[in-house]
Design goal:
heterodimer, A: about 100 residues, mainly beta, three-stranded antiparallel beta sheet, two-stranded antiparallel ribbon, 1 helix, about 5% helix, extended, B: about 230 residues, alpha+beta, SH3 type barrels, 2 domains, eight-stranded antiparallel beta sheet
Chain lengths: ~100, ~230
Amino acid sequence: MERAVGRQPRDSSTVRVQRNGNSKVLPLPADVARALDVHFGATYVVEVSGDDVVYHRVKESAVAVSGSAGARIGTVPDTEVSAAPQRVAVPELTWDF
Amino acid sequence: MVSRTRWPPTAADYYLACGPERPVFQGDVFGDVPLVKAKSAGNPEKPPNLVVERRMVAVTGYPCDIYAEGRLVRVQTVAPVVPADRLGIPIDWDGAFTFAPLPDLLGDGAWNAVDLRVAANIDASYLRPGHRLRSLSETGWAAFRQRMALCDTRALISLTALQAIGASAWAEVELWQRWNEAGRDPTGFPAWLDTREAALGGFVRRQVLERGMIEQVRVALERDLGPAADDA
Protein backbone atom coordinates (compact mmCIF):
# COMPACT_ATOMS: atom_id res chain seq x y z
CA MET A 1 0.00 0.00 0.00
CA GLU A 2 1.20 3.47 -0.79
CA ARG A 3 0.06 6.83 0.37
CA ALA A 4 -0.78 8.62 -2.82
CA VAL A 5 -1.24 12.30 -3.36
CA GLY A 6 -3.11 13.57 -6.37
CA ARG A 7 -1.37 16.55 -7.97
CA GLN A 8 -2.08 18.78 -10.91
CA PRO A 9 -1.50 16.52 -13.88
CA ARG A 10 0.79 17.78 -16.61
CA ASP A 11 -1.93 16.59 -18.86
CA SER A 12 -5.21 15.08 -17.96
CA SER A 13 -3.88 11.56 -17.99
CA THR A 14 -1.25 11.50 -15.26
CA VAL A 15 -1.19 11.53 -11.48
CA ARG A 16 1.80 12.01 -9.19
CA VAL A 17 2.20 9.37 -6.50
CA GLN A 18 4.25 10.04 -3.40
CA ARG A 19 5.74 7.43 -1.15
CA ASN A 20 8.07 8.18 1.76
CA GLY A 21 8.76 11.60 0.33
CA ASN A 22 9.70 10.30 -3.12
CA SER A 23 7.33 10.83 -5.95
CA LYS A 24 6.79 9.57 -9.45
CA VAL A 25 4.24 10.13 -12.15
CA LEU A 26 1.88 7.33 -13.03
CA PRO A 27 -0.53 7.29 -15.95
CA LEU A 28 -4.21 7.56 -15.14
CA PRO A 29 -6.70 7.45 -17.99
CA ALA A 30 -8.42 10.80 -18.38
CA ASP A 31 -11.86 9.24 -18.48
CA VAL A 32 -11.13 7.45 -15.21
CA ALA A 33 -9.91 10.68 -13.63
CA ARG A 34 -13.12 12.40 -14.72
CA ALA A 35 -15.32 9.55 -13.60
CA LEU A 36 -13.74 9.41 -10.15
CA ASP A 37 -13.44 13.16 -9.77
CA VAL A 38 -9.67 12.97 -9.26
CA HIS A 39 -8.58 16.54 -8.95
CA PHE A 40 -5.65 18.71 -7.94
CA GLY A 41 -4.78 18.60 -4.24
CA ALA A 42 -6.87 15.57 -3.39
CA THR A 43 -5.23 12.91 -1.24
CA TYR A 44 -5.70 9.19 -1.67
CA VAL A 45 -4.57 5.94 -0.19
CA VAL A 46 -3.62 3.59 -3.00
CA GLU A 47 -4.14 -0.11 -2.46
CA VAL A 48 -2.88 -2.77 -4.86
CA SER A 49 -5.43 -5.55 -5.12
CA GLY A 50 -4.43 -8.24 -7.58
CA ASP A 51 -4.08 -6.54 -10.95
CA ASP A 52 -6.09 -3.55 -9.80
CA VAL A 53 -4.97 -0.31 -8.21
CA VAL A 54 -7.65 0.98 -5.87
CA TYR A 55 -7.69 4.65 -4.90
CA HIS A 56 -9.31 5.48 -1.57
CA ARG A 57 -10.00 9.16 -1.22
CA VAL A 58 -8.76 10.52 2.12
CA LYS A 59 -11.20 12.90 3.68
CA GLU A 60 -9.42 15.93 5.07
CA SER A 61 -10.34 16.74 8.63
CA ALA A 62 -12.48 19.81 9.19
CA VAL A 63 -11.88 19.77 12.94
CA ALA A 64 -11.56 23.21 14.52
CA VAL A 65 -9.08 23.20 17.39
CA SER A 66 -8.90 26.16 19.77
CA GLY A 67 -7.52 27.07 23.18
CA SER A 68 -4.17 26.16 24.66
CA ALA A 69 -2.69 23.49 26.92
CA GLY A 70 -5.34 22.04 29.23
CA ALA A 71 -8.01 24.33 27.80
CA ARG A 72 -7.41 23.16 24.25
CA ILE A 73 -10.49 21.65 22.68
CA GLY A 74 -11.54 20.39 19.29
CA THR A 75 -14.91 21.01 17.68
CA VAL A 76 -15.82 18.05 15.54
CA PRO A 77 -18.07 18.71 12.52
CA ASP A 78 -21.14 16.58 11.99
CA THR A 79 -19.49 14.82 9.11
CA GLU A 80 -16.84 13.37 11.45
CA VAL A 81 -19.36 11.88 13.89
CA SER A 82 -22.01 9.22 13.53
CA ALA A 83 -24.19 7.18 15.86
CA ALA A 84 -22.91 3.72 16.64
CA PRO A 85 -25.56 1.43 18.09
CA GLN A 86 -24.23 -1.41 20.20
CA ARG A 87 -24.45 -4.45 17.95
CA VAL A 88 -23.19 -7.22 20.20
CA ALA A 89 -24.22 -8.43 23.62
CA VAL A 90 -21.84 -7.12 26.23
CA PRO A 91 -21.45 -9.10 29.44
CA GLU A 92 -22.94 -7.45 32.50
CA LEU A 93 -20.56 -5.54 34.71
CA THR A 94 -20.07 -7.39 37.98
CA TRP A 95 -17.51 -7.27 40.76
CA ASP A 96 -15.64 -9.98 38.87
CA PHE A 97 -14.34 -7.46 36.36
CA MET B 1 -2.17 9.44 8.82
CA VAL B 2 -4.49 6.76 10.07
CA SER B 3 -4.55 3.74 7.80
CA ARG B 4 -8.04 2.63 6.88
CA THR B 5 -7.02 -0.27 4.74
CA ARG B 6 -5.53 -2.39 7.52
CA TRP B 7 -8.09 -2.72 10.24
CA PRO B 8 -8.16 -3.73 12.99
CA PRO B 9 -4.60 -2.64 13.67
CA THR B 10 -1.81 -4.98 14.63
CA ALA B 11 0.43 -4.61 17.67
CA ALA B 12 3.02 -2.95 15.42
CA ASP B 13 0.43 -0.32 14.46
CA TYR B 14 -0.98 0.09 17.91
CA TYR B 15 1.98 0.38 20.27
CA LEU B 16 5.05 2.51 20.55
CA ALA B 17 8.54 1.20 21.20
CA CYS B 18 9.71 3.40 24.03
CA GLY B 19 11.77 3.38 27.18
CA PRO B 20 11.30 4.84 30.63
CA GLU B 21 11.97 8.35 29.31
CA ARG B 22 8.55 8.39 27.71
CA PRO B 23 6.25 10.39 30.00
CA VAL B 24 3.21 8.53 31.28
CA PHE B 25 0.43 9.10 28.77
CA GLN B 26 -3.23 8.27 28.29
CA GLY B 27 -3.68 4.62 27.36
CA ASP B 28 -0.40 3.43 28.90
CA VAL B 29 -0.78 -0.05 30.34
CA PHE B 30 0.84 -0.87 33.67
CA GLY B 31 1.04 -4.14 35.54
CA ASP B 32 0.85 -4.93 39.25
CA VAL B 33 -1.33 -1.96 40.17
CA PRO B 34 -3.66 -2.31 43.19
CA LEU B 35 -7.34 -1.96 42.33
CA VAL B 36 -9.71 -1.54 45.25
CA LYS B 37 -13.23 -2.93 45.07
CA ALA B 38 -15.67 -1.78 47.73
CA LYS B 39 -18.25 -4.53 47.81
CA SER B 40 -21.35 -4.19 49.91
CA ALA B 41 -21.37 -6.15 53.14
CA GLY B 42 -25.12 -6.51 52.75
CA ASN B 43 -26.03 -3.48 54.80
CA PRO B 44 -25.55 -0.08 53.13
CA GLU B 45 -25.15 1.51 56.56
CA LYS B 46 -22.04 -0.53 57.31
CA PRO B 47 -18.55 -0.15 55.82
CA PRO B 48 -17.99 -2.14 52.63
CA ASN B 49 -15.81 -5.17 52.33
CA LEU B 50 -12.66 -3.95 50.63
CA VAL B 51 -10.96 -6.22 48.15
CA VAL B 52 -7.58 -5.28 46.73
CA GLU B 53 -6.41 -6.95 43.54
CA ARG B 54 -3.09 -6.43 41.76
CA ARG B 55 -4.07 -5.94 38.16
CA MET B 56 -3.08 -4.71 34.74
CA VAL B 57 -4.63 -1.30 34.18
CA ALA B 58 -4.70 1.42 31.55
CA VAL B 59 -4.38 5.11 32.34
CA THR B 60 -7.62 6.80 31.25
CA GLY B 61 -7.03 10.41 32.30
CA TYR B 62 -6.37 12.95 29.55
CA PRO B 63 -2.68 13.95 29.33
CA CYS B 64 -3.39 17.53 30.38
CA ASP B 65 -5.18 16.32 33.50
CA ILE B 66 -2.71 13.72 34.74
CA TYR B 67 0.12 16.24 35.19
CA ALA B 68 0.55 19.41 37.21
CA GLU B 69 3.74 21.40 36.69
CA GLY B 70 5.47 18.45 35.12
CA ARG B 71 4.63 15.96 37.87
CA LEU B 72 2.04 13.23 37.80
CA VAL B 73 -0.82 14.34 39.99
CA ARG B 74 -1.21 12.18 43.07
CA VAL B 75 -4.56 10.64 42.17
CA GLN B 76 -4.78 8.93 38.81
CA THR B 77 -7.75 7.32 37.09
CA VAL B 78 -7.35 3.91 35.53
CA ALA B 79 -9.48 1.11 34.12
CA PRO B 80 -8.73 -2.61 34.34
CA VAL B 81 -7.34 -4.65 31.48
CA VAL B 82 -9.18 -7.93 30.99
CA PRO B 83 -8.81 -10.88 28.59
CA ALA B 84 -10.81 -10.08 25.46
CA ASP B 85 -12.00 -13.60 24.76
CA ARG B 86 -14.86 -13.29 27.23
CA LEU B 87 -16.03 -9.86 26.13
CA GLY B 88 -17.56 -10.60 22.73
CA ILE B 89 -15.53 -8.05 20.80
CA PRO B 90 -16.09 -8.69 17.06
CA ILE B 91 -12.99 -9.41 15.06
CA ASP B 92 -13.46 -6.12 13.19
CA TRP B 93 -14.00 -4.23 16.49
CA ASP B 94 -17.42 -3.09 15.24
CA GLY B 95 -19.27 -3.47 18.50
CA ALA B 96 -18.61 -4.06 22.20
CA PHE B 97 -17.97 -0.34 22.46
CA THR B 98 -17.56 -0.44 26.22
CA PHE B 99 -14.14 -1.99 25.74
CA ALA B 100 -10.93 -0.68 24.23
CA PRO B 101 -9.17 -3.58 22.49
CA LEU B 102 -5.44 -4.09 23.06
CA PRO B 103 -4.13 -6.39 20.33
CA ASP B 104 -1.34 -8.76 21.32
CA LEU B 105 -0.76 -6.79 24.49
CA LEU B 106 1.79 -9.15 25.99
CA GLY B 107 3.36 -10.37 22.77
CA ASP B 108 1.79 -13.80 23.08
CA GLY B 109 -0.86 -13.27 20.42
CA ALA B 110 -3.69 -13.00 22.94
CA TRP B 111 -6.05 -10.06 22.89
CA ASN B 112 -6.92 -8.03 25.91
CA ALA B 113 -9.15 -5.02 26.34
CA VAL B 114 -9.66 -2.15 28.72
CA ASP B 115 -13.05 -2.27 30.43
CA LEU B 116 -13.99 1.39 30.12
CA ARG B 117 -17.07 0.98 32.29
CA VAL B 118 -14.79 0.87 35.30
CA ALA B 119 -13.12 4.00 36.66
CA ALA B 120 -10.75 3.36 39.54
CA ASN B 121 -8.55 5.83 41.36
CA ILE B 122 -5.04 4.88 42.35
CA ASP B 123 -2.02 6.60 43.80
CA ALA B 124 0.34 7.74 41.03
CA SER B 125 3.25 6.01 42.77
CA TYR B 126 1.92 2.70 41.49
CA LEU B 127 2.56 3.77 37.90
CA ARG B 128 6.15 2.61 38.09
CA PRO B 129 8.29 2.91 34.94
CA GLY B 130 9.50 -0.68 35.24
CA HIS B 131 5.91 -1.90 35.31
CA ARG B 132 4.79 -0.14 32.15
CA LEU B 133 3.87 -2.83 29.66
CA ARG B 134 2.81 -0.75 26.67
CA SER B 135 2.46 2.78 25.39
CA LEU B 136 0.07 3.50 22.55
CA SER B 137 1.17 4.75 19.16
CA GLU B 138 -0.49 7.84 17.73
CA THR B 139 -2.91 5.56 15.87
CA GLY B 140 -3.46 3.52 19.01
CA TRP B 141 -4.15 6.63 21.08
CA ALA B 142 -6.72 7.86 18.54
CA ALA B 143 -8.43 4.47 18.57
CA PHE B 144 -8.36 4.39 22.38
CA ARG B 145 -10.06 7.80 22.57
CA GLN B 146 -12.55 6.70 19.94
CA ARG B 147 -13.54 3.80 22.19
CA MET B 148 -13.78 6.08 25.23
CA ALA B 149 -16.24 8.30 23.38
CA LEU B 150 -18.16 5.27 22.14
CA CYS B 151 -18.39 3.85 25.64
CA ASP B 152 -19.89 6.95 27.17
CA THR B 153 -21.87 8.43 24.28
CA ARG B 154 -22.16 5.87 21.45
CA ALA B 155 -20.85 8.64 19.22
CA LEU B 156 -18.38 7.37 16.65
CA ILE B 157 -15.84 10.12 16.10
CA SER B 158 -13.55 9.62 13.13
CA LEU B 159 -9.95 8.70 13.86
CA THR B 160 -8.88 11.54 11.58
CA ALA B 161 -10.71 14.05 13.76
CA LEU B 162 -9.32 12.61 16.97
CA GLN B 163 -5.81 12.60 15.58
CA ALA B 164 -6.17 16.24 14.54
CA ILE B 165 -7.45 17.23 17.98
CA GLY B 166 -4.64 15.38 19.73
CA ALA B 167 -1.84 16.47 17.41
CA SER B 168 -0.30 19.11 19.66
CA ALA B 169 -0.50 16.93 22.78
CA TRP B 170 1.20 14.17 20.83
CA ALA B 171 3.92 16.53 19.62
CA GLU B 172 4.40 17.80 23.17
CA VAL B 173 4.98 14.36 24.64
CA GLU B 174 7.45 13.55 21.85
CA LEU B 175 9.50 16.61 22.73
CA TRP B 176 9.17 15.92 26.45
CA GLN B 177 10.51 12.41 25.86
CA ARG B 178 13.48 13.90 23.99
CA TRP B 179 14.06 16.27 26.93
CA ASN B 180 14.10 13.30 29.33
CA GLU B 181 16.38 11.27 27.08
CA ALA B 182 18.91 14.10 27.31
CA GLY B 183 19.00 13.62 31.05
CA ARG B 184 17.10 16.78 31.99
CA ASP B 185 14.84 17.03 35.02
CA PRO B 186 11.44 15.91 33.64
CA THR B 187 9.59 18.53 35.65
CA GLY B 188 11.47 21.30 33.83
CA PHE B 189 10.01 20.66 30.40
CA PRO B 190 6.59 22.34 30.77
CA ALA B 191 8.27 25.55 31.94
CA TRP B 192 10.63 25.41 28.97
CA LEU B 193 7.67 24.93 26.62
CA ASP B 194 5.77 27.84 28.17
CA THR B 195 8.64 30.28 27.60
CA ARG B 196 8.80 32.88 24.87
CA GLU B 197 11.36 32.20 22.18
CA ALA B 198 13.02 35.03 20.27
CA ALA B 199 13.95 32.70 17.42
CA LEU B 200 10.27 31.86 17.05
CA GLY B 201 9.14 35.42 16.56
CA GLY B 202 8.75 36.03 20.27
CA PHE B 203 5.90 33.55 20.58
CA VAL B 204 5.57 31.16 23.47
CA ARG B 205 6.95 27.81 22.29
CA ARG B 206 3.74 26.02 23.21
CA GLN B 207 1.75 28.38 21.00
CA VAL B 208 4.08 27.62 18.12
CA LEU B 209 3.65 23.91 18.76
CA GLU B 210 -0.11 24.25 18.87
CA ARG B 211 0.00 25.91 15.48
CA GLY B 212 1.51 22.75 14.08
CA MET B 213 5.12 23.90 13.84
CA ILE B 214 6.69 21.08 15.80
CA GLU B 215 9.88 21.05 13.74
CA GLN B 216 10.67 24.66 14.64
CA VAL B 217 10.18 23.90 18.33
CA ARG B 218 12.23 20.74 17.97
CA VAL B 219 15.13 22.77 16.56
CA ALA B 220 14.93 25.15 19.53
CA LEU B 221 14.86 22.23 21.93
CA GLU B 222 17.89 20.54 20.37
CA ARG B 223 19.74 23.85 20.50
CA ASP B 224 19.01 24.21 24.21
CA LEU B 225 19.79 20.62 25.02
CA GLY B 226 23.13 21.01 23.25
CA PRO B 227 25.63 18.29 22.32
CA ALA B 228 26.78 17.93 25.93
CA ALA B 229 23.26 17.06 27.04
CA ASP B 230 23.43 13.82 25.07
CA ASP B 231 26.28 12.68 27.27
CA ALA B 232 24.54 13.55 30.52
